[in-house]
Amino acid sequence: MSEEDKDVTAESAAEKEAKAQAAAEARAARAAARAKAAESQENAESAPKPPSPKQPMLDRIVQILQQEVGPGTVEEAVINELDRHLPTLTISPFRWLETANLLKTFPGLELTYLRNVSGTDHETHLEVVYHLISLTDKQDYCFKVKADHELPQIPSVTGVWSTANWNEREIYDLLGIEFIGHPDLRRIMMSDDWVGHPLRKDYEPLDPEV
Asked: Where is the composition biased (Basic and acidic residues) (predicted)?
């Protein structure tokens, strides 16, 4: 092998070594960056979250309901951070009608506008969700009431908010929740002879083609 060829071979080996060294350094840098990011995320997760700006609203309404309606009225109270930090309360079905009347008339609450009512099948239980707004101070809340899957019954609040009338009929029609005290509880979407409730997760249509 000529001296020139030896020089080329030596240069190629040096280049390969340099490239390997650069690749190793790049891998080490990426690993260090990942470790730093993971550490930062861990520190962020372990750091205490600042309180929600609407936590005082939630604490106040829980206190009012526990005092005015009674202990056990509120089954759960949370801040829904994904929905504008919306105060969200789960109310005992046995206290729901009394709670609804209080929410509409209690000074400082006056939740006179029922914006929406919806129902959901969670398999283990059914749930009705009410979104209420105070037109006085423009504050809104969410209330949930659970119902037994086998015998789903919830007090009707049509007498409190007339808007609930057709909403409750729709939920009764599609999920089979009976609203006790509703003035005209009958199907509103399906025909009167329809079998079952189409939004129940255990619903099996008599005719799969329908």
From this structure: 7-19
